[in-house]
Fold each of these.
Amino acid sequence: MLPNALPDQIAMSTSALPGPQLLRTGVVARLRRGLTPLTFTALAVALIVALPLLSLAASLTQTGTGSLQHLSRTVLPAAVLNTIGLILLVGSGTAFVGVITAWLVTAFRFPGSRHLEWLLLLPMAMPAYIIGYVYTDALAFVGPVQSALRAWFGWSKADYWFPDIHNLGGVSLMLTLVLYPYVYMLARSAFIEQSACTMDASRTLGGSMSESFWRIALPLARPAVAAGVALVLMEALADFGTVEYFGIHTFTTVIYRTWFGMGDRIAAAQLSIGLLCFVFVLAALERQARGSRRFARTSRRERILGARPLRGVTATAALAACALPVLLGFAVPAFLLVRLHLSGGDPLFGARFAQYATNSFMLAGMAAVIVVAAGALLAYALRVSASPLTRLAVRFATLGYAIPGTVVAVGILLPLGLFDNTLDRFMRGSFGISTGLLFSGTLVALMFAYLVRFLAIATGGIEAGYARIGMNVDYAARTLGSTQGALAGRIHAPMLRRSLLTAGLVVFVDVMKELPATLIVRPFNLDTLAIRAYQLASDERLAQSSTAALAIVVIGILPVLLLTSAMRQRH
Amino acid sequence: MSTLTNRRQFLATSAGLTVALTAPAIVRAQAAQVLNLYSSRHYDTDEALYANFTTGTGIRVNRIEAAPDALIERMRAEGANSPADVFVSVDAGRIERARELGLLAPVNSEVLASRVPASLRDPNGYWFGFSSRARVIMYNKDKVSPAELSTYEELANPKWKGRLLTRSSTAIYNQSLTGSILAANGEAATETWARGIVANMARPPRGGDTDQFRACAAGEGDLAIANTYYLGNAIRKPQPADAAVLEKIAVFFPNQGGRGTHINISGGGLCASSKNPHAAVRFLEYLVSEPAQRFLADGNDEYPVVAGVAPPATIARFGSFKPDQLNAGVFARNNALALQIMDRAGWK
């Protein structure tokens, strides 16, 4: 049994601000004082990133063509239920798989555990719609599995039952398989960074391994797990390709149907805002539940949590539990893609293809740097400024991840077009010079799109990293005369190295897979692997599209491997 | 210490600014003779189609290929400064919407008016069809005799209960088909028809058109509603899953005794924002030339619109048919109501 009051070192008390009262009032007051240039910049960045959302919000003042009434009488109720079901299934699924696997590979040693550490990240490289396509293709009535069964047993349609994945459970499984790595990654970082002393203390006080997990490790990792699940849910809410292919109506498919099927842009924007409110409430609830507890480490001298060797049945069970998500989320779909590729791959495979790959790589690399820089700025501003305005702006700015890609992309086009055209009118009126479209249709616009779409990943990941650095570090540094810039650059950055790298690599992989914004916002003649895969798949040329899909996966693995070595650095 | 940080910040900021300010200029550096194409076609033969135009005219073709709705939104956002010269869509509904939104300008061209049949172009020259596809009934030869088939309307007959395969109402092709039935029979009859279709479905709608006739060949249903070019694609480049398709699936052109089979177009028009309308019209006229018609049709196994140009062998084998003469703009304008009807009928 654990005693109720844990040693101070565990630092999970409701107020983790140590040190003399004097220090607290003096430095805190300085830290929390109004708008410094840094927080001002952060506020500006947040507002710019929030522009597309604000342009959607402008729709609230208008009325559409009456589609909302029609929708609420027909498809909307089922769509809302499906969306809630999707959130519950994917949220619990990814939390379960991500946390269990992260705990197993961190706290125990079993055959293959060192390899599974990185193998478990691989499904992240698999775009959700691709895994949906290959599984439905393989498991369909006409697919290889059922065809083989019918051939062997001489069955026809009515003679046998076969699990149907075209339902909410099926699509949730697909999304869980490719999204759990977000939770795994953040949970694992949190477990690794937990002081071995903490666990030792718990064990010394008589706690079993599972008690230590439930009462120490998991609560300490909670901000990380919550951040991971939040990213997963936003990604799941924004998904269109997979749910549409599975024939499941969700809030997102209804938004598409309203906009593109019924041509009611206003109602679609209003629905998008509804979706956002939902996300906002969800995020606020989690933060509320976490309360004012702080989860920082107190010392940097700790040892890494020692992994306990497992043997026999428990080792096999651990291996199976960790191998299953890798098999289903990566190995099987990759095998199916290779099989499709061999049955008739992309006819343009060759020099042209290398160009697609280079474009994807460059865009993803540029975006990773820009998005992480902005994310770090916002996370830092959140840390040093308690201004409610900053907080609200950052929360709002990072909602872009939850909006369906096409909607957010259109939301980006609008303010850009407005800016360009207003500037053009002004320049023409004042100087007789036409500036045309300055940003629309350029790389700058595309990077802006990625920033809006993926800022949540960077900010969330870096915030989770910050949560593990006690505020006393900041107080000490500021007491010793450090400027805000020096605090961020010389003190936080090295401590956050892993969080920054992780955020950058996740953004990289996500941009590689990103489709709708790239498709709409890009400059002329810029093709990427994701675009190529989509174009062929949208023509129902699945085998041909498998080549580009495989290339996305292969290039996506590179950063995953980098990420692994980054995560291992501390061993 | 803080000087160093400041210098770094300064360097980072100026590097960022330089990139931000020069990137648009670099991207924008273009040759004089350029045609900017916003297209939702993206077939590999299109490259040869554009290269041939460049060879003949010296005009280079810049492309952005995306879903038509996305391109429409982009043109709307870019406004009068949009670089788009020509908009190409693979569905009449979308190109008609572009016209309704004022994104297209009329073209008065003798070449286009004479070579494109009246039902496949806008009466005022806002858009022109360049290739067409028929939405047909595909049936499993082992299960269905063509004598049992007649019209789209008949697919709602209870005798087909549990035997019909079709995709979701989200698919624009089903919206356009329903839009044409709406034009022929009116709202009430169309809703009754849609309910009959839903009642006859062999399974809830899922997947694309290819998935429907593959399932039909495998015996999951007996009839499938699909566009001709998907079967043409399967014939041109069969996948392992298509072996049964080639053996068992046949095409039936419905409504031959009446208004004809529903066809949809891939079409294009001059953008209202075009700074280069002369080149744009040349391009549109090029698309109805014989070599271009062949590229367009072969690229996606579609029917050429110009009389005298033969369809590719992959679809010519289905035989000739009488197409519905309803102007594409009419069923296009019916799309939104058609979708609401399908929603009410429970067509997922």
Amino acid sequence: MTLTAAPPEERVTHQRARPRKGWRYAGTVAVFLLPSLVPLTLYTIIPMLGSLWTSLHEWDLITEMRWVGLGNYIELIGDPGTRAAFLHTLSFIAGYLPLVYAGGLGLALLLNRAPRSTGSGRSLLRGIYFLPVITSWVVVALMWKWLLNPASGIVNWALGLFGISGPGWWTDPAWAMPSVILASAWKDLGFVMIILLAGLQAIPREYQEAAMVDGATAWRRFRHITLPLLSPSTFFVVVISLINGFQVFDQVKIMTNGGPGGATQVVVSQIYDLTFRYGRAGAASALSWLLFAVVLIVTIIQIRGQKRWVTYG
Amino acid sequence: MSHFPGSRNAAIATVAAVALLASACSQGSATRAPSGADGKATVRYFTFSAAPDHLKDLDTIEKAFEKENPKVDVVVETAPFEEYFTKLQTSIAGGTAPDAFELNYENFVTYASAGSLLDLGTVAGDGDTSVYAQESLNAFQQDGKQYALPASFSTVVLFYNKDLFKKAGVAEPTADWTWADEQAAAAELTDRKKGVYGDFQPVQFFEFYKTLKQAGGEFLSADGKKATFNSPEGVKAAKWLVGKVGKSMPTEAEIGGAADYDTNLFKSGKLAMWHNGIWQFAGLKDVPFEWDVVVEPGDANKASAVFHNAVAISSGTKAGKDAYAWARFLSSSNVAATTRIQSSWELPPVADQQVLSGYLKDPKPANRQAVFDSLKSIALPPVIKRQQEMQDAVTKQLTEAAAGRTSVEDALKAAAADVDALLG
Amino acid sequence: MGKARGRIRGETRTSIGARRAVLGQIARYLLVGLGALAMLFPFGWAVITSITPSDAVLAVPPDFTPEGASLDAYGKLLETLPFWRIVLNSAWIGAASTMLQLITSAMAAYAFARLPFPGRGALFAVYLTTLMMPLPVLVVPLFIEMRTFGLVDTYFALLAPTIASAFGVFLLRQAINQVPREFDEAAVLDGAGHFRIFLYVVLPLIRPALATFAIFGFMASWNSYLWPLIIIKSPEFMTLPLGLATLHGQFTTQWDVVMAGSVISVVPILILYVFAQKHVIASVAQSGLK
């Protein structure tokens, strides 16, 4: 597996500075990497291998492990519950990612362009937009369940004003996932905003000003300057949101607990239930590795594809 | 690296800092090693039922025990019920199971058959078990061996708001009520415009197995190898539960996922009848209306749900005798029994009616006797090895029926198929 | 993006369509303000729930001017939990884990962004893969590992999984990649080695990203629940989420107290955010990028 983690032009620049000779920097590299590599190996990679071992067993955690080889994998692949869980997870991502990126980008642009004189007001606004990110899911979920209450929620009341009879939201299997998506996107807007804002602030002001002098429209400036220069931040947001999206769990557990009728049972809910509620740690580990394979493939595709659209300074 | 001497120093400094941190942190644990140097034995006890309301009561019992057994030091660890078993399983998997721990009746079989529990006969000596209510004691036996001591129990009764009954001119429930009486009263008491509901009974596994018994049905076949609840009685019980939703009881959509919706509905005086456990007594002390309890109405039979908690001892413990002494003290000593009764912390499963009579002295609710009456015909939940999956499957199908997405008949059929697969 | 650089410097800004700009400004403020209101709502709601007497927390529809509002829930919170001890634990563990993550992640990010070495891409991919395994499946093997090291129920065990953060490495690597290479080259010409460049050139330039990551690092530690639940036994090591969870009983939960706890638990992060926010703006202003 060779992933190109670094943009090509960078290597060129570096060769100018000092010729590249394979392990020339071995010592320096080790010093920079070991502080993270050692704990990462000890506290994440080794447990990951542990779960790989577990996935080949039937294990309820309280009795001895029993070797079943690939039995768990075979069972899971044929299980309609697994397919449903992956399907629910994918539908979460399909709704969540565009929503949270568009919202976060819009916010970042609005807040970035506010005039300098209102600096304190701007940072107050940012703080407010960041509130949902730091508020616990317990509170957020309770509030959204009330907002989206089919009978007396404010959202359906507002829809009623336009003569629309609102859906059953999270009590209706067809609308439960959209409800979770809505709440999640709302909660994470601030996260995407802050990342993109940091990216926007790193864009030298001269670029915009130059384009303005050239008479470029706002849209052209956005399309040809802001978006390309923001692409490293966008890349980060997309990769992280996808990795996190595949592991969506907390909000589902608190908001719908997989219901109604299993309509929001996602992969990690399934993993949690299998491990801790149903005494099937082996099957849970196998399912995690299936999920892992999917996320890995998706991420590799993104990293491979980044050359086409990500511009580094 | 040689061109910049600072790099090696930085590396050494980093490694040293991490090492220092690691040793500093782990030292903390070394000084807290189990079984102190003063020759005291330590018994680690893991519990879910004490938090959040009864930690002080547990402390009282613990102090009394340590006074009687100065050589034993009881260390209490608690976890919320939701995650208790997550933690317990992990500690057993990691070989650090607590010496003694609490188990509820539903999970007892799983742990007993997994070999996680010590056969108490090996440490009990000539321990006399006549102090326990026999039925409670028997609930925690397997293959003729006692694997846990019953420590507390609670029952489910029918709570009712006397003021609402008076206002509607409906006669208050009695112990002779049947489902038909309850249904008629609920219809009359419900006033949706005022947001008043006649009846509240959750649609889930625990209510279903009980109403099934009330209807005269059985959940599992006698040999425990087949689900038998997909029967005319089962359909009747499920229809009884599901039929309330949206009529005398709010729908799931109306409940809106609000936490403790039913508790708050009853407390705010807008719920006439409420199927719930005696653990609610303490929280209802100061409500501004009159209320009482009565044994739940039956149908073909009377049957009341009982929730049992017991203390088990880990099969891997090194302090079996001391842990047993603690388990015994916690479950049957006078101090424990009276502490539980005084603080309404469930009921002690003791045989001595004298001890229990203290429970009746509390003036509210007036008909506390109903709690003991409900014990005359109890319905213990069906228990299988894959308990949690069974409970989830049954609840899921019933919820589907309650939401009107499937018929009661289809729901029971699907649930029975699921349970059969689990019995496999 | 060397092409656009230096095209103009010091040219005056034209002020075409100033009136349209004002109108746009107003619309923008309206939009941002309305959004802000929507964002504030849940927090206000939690505050109200926490001061509403427990028997009136009937949530549908919520009463925004509850009668008999009181701070009882906060009193109960302090009474039922050794609250200050818990907050102190959470605070110092959060601070320690944030510091460690910042150091380890920034260093690794520098290596991945600026030091060419064989297998760099593959190793970075390995880092990323550690983000792809769901936590519920890792806690059991990790617990068993901690037990072998004799670290169950220690502060170190709480900290250990947070020393390194692949998320942080990724975030900071992206930030370093955005730093123009001319800056380090200038330093190289001055004879600086990688440590100097890292400390004196790169770190100051990625301060906004560091501040951002500090908030996320702290939040992750401050809110983490499953791992502390599993690894901690003694009440003296209890963290805030664990403490709040003890308010959930087998049959009953004191929701007003839970809400009070949730409200209090947001405050430190909010303070940290405001602090970091100031820092972000200051550093952007200084960094010479504008």
Amino acid sequence: MSLDPATVRRIARLARIGIDESDLPALQRELNGILGWIEQLNEVDIDGVEPMVGTGHAALRMREDVVTDGDARDAVLSNAPDAAGPYYTVPKVVE
Amino acid sequence: MTYLIEGRDGPWELVVGLEVHAQVISQSKLFSGASASYGGEPNTHVSLVDAGFPGMLPVINRECVAQAVRTGLGLKARVNLESRFDRKNYFYADLPTGYQISQFTHPIIGEGAVEIELADGSTRVIGITRLHLEQDAGKSMHDQDPARSFIDLNRAGVALMEIVSEPDIRSPEEAGAYLRKLRMILRYLGTCDGNMEEGSMRADVNVSVRKAGEPFRTRCEIKNVNSIRYVMQAIEVEAVRQVEIWENGGSVDQETRLFDPARSETRSLRSKEDAHDYRYFPDPDLLPLVIEEAWVQGLAAHLPELPDAKRQRFQDEYGIPRYDAGVLVAEQATADFYETVARGRDPRLAANWVIGDFFAALNRTGRTIQDSPISADALGGMLDLITDGTINGKIAKDVFEEMLETGESAADIVERKGLRQVTDTGAIDAAVQAVLDKNPDKLAEYRGGKDKLFGFFVGQVMKAMAGKGNPALVNEALKKVL
């Protein structure tokens, strides 16, 4: 599998990363290098092996349905660059 | 009855599937301990997990899982003892983490079925493809400021069930019936309040059209429709739009559209071609969700009686018609009310009164069954007076109105106003005689063969007795002298 420049551009856009046209060839080379490295895994025969999703046979731990958190607006908004009263704000996003 | 869209060159068939997002009833959120309740001051029902702070880890809420399983059982669906969570990636200001935790490849609930009933009495089964758990997003407000959108994350992370139907729906009516039935089941189960106005139940509508016998053609998805009526309208106008495109030699593009009720049209969401590229992958923060068969069976054992079963039982146990039983089970509170009235009484008389005068009174006064001015026991007490002959059916209507106004018991009203039905045959005979004396001409006509006048005499006697005569005895007395 190898990525063409259009795909690299698209991946960047999906991740909201702005890139210069001039950076494309280098990025394409790097990404293809990573994919090539991962593709080596395909050489391993995994017929009949269940996908491993974690170590051991651990399953998700569940918590009880009680309110233990929240009511911490100041902390929640502490990193907001442009809070307005009780709200976060962002540049207007209306379609 | 087949719903067809008449095109220029013949009829088209409609194909619809629905994705319903139902907000789970729980105290706290799916993956955090913040409150899941509606309202609240902006950004106060938010934990650092919901706000997407670095390093915060999600921990699943057992009750949300239980609610999904209950819903699955109520939809007669397969419960998957092992399911998984995936990240659905997209950027939007009210999604702090940049991904929604959802279940893509391994949902907790598999195939099920919902039986719907149409206006003509026919029934159809609509298949359920799956149900999965996922997080809701926050809320954006665009009208507070000229240049900025305001974000409230109170809803972010609240548990949703996405319930996906098979493309089995063939008319707007079926779509409406499906949504109503689904909402009824969710409310009975207590897993979602089904309130579409507050947004706790929303529908995405997949619509396509085809000629009879064809495979499916390209579909469009109409996002976030928030009332049953709008779903039905959206389907109707979208189908007509697609037929026009096909008939003019064009082809329908698979895309996301919005329904605009004011103009009764659907519009393309000016979306980027990447709108559907969510790059799902397994959430590395969450191990597989594994539940025990015994736990599922414990939940199944405590499910309430569901609408279909209750309706059948009402028919069997109370001997009331299928239609009446359907009306009574539409809401659990109504069904409970009816059962209280009917217990130990004539169940058909009870059904007639509940569906007839009682429902009419609620409508008229703008009350609901929860704040009804007449309790089930009070209505039952009035039926007892009818059954034991204390009052007749006509007086009962007056007593009922009085109960509605004053909240008094039927027995007190009858006593206070002296409405006891007259069963004294002496008094009835006297009234009959007085009426005959007053109407010698009518009497002559009757004797001359005009049988229909019998009703006139009954009416006059009842009037003379202020409606309190026992109708059977009045009839009998009249027949004797006439």
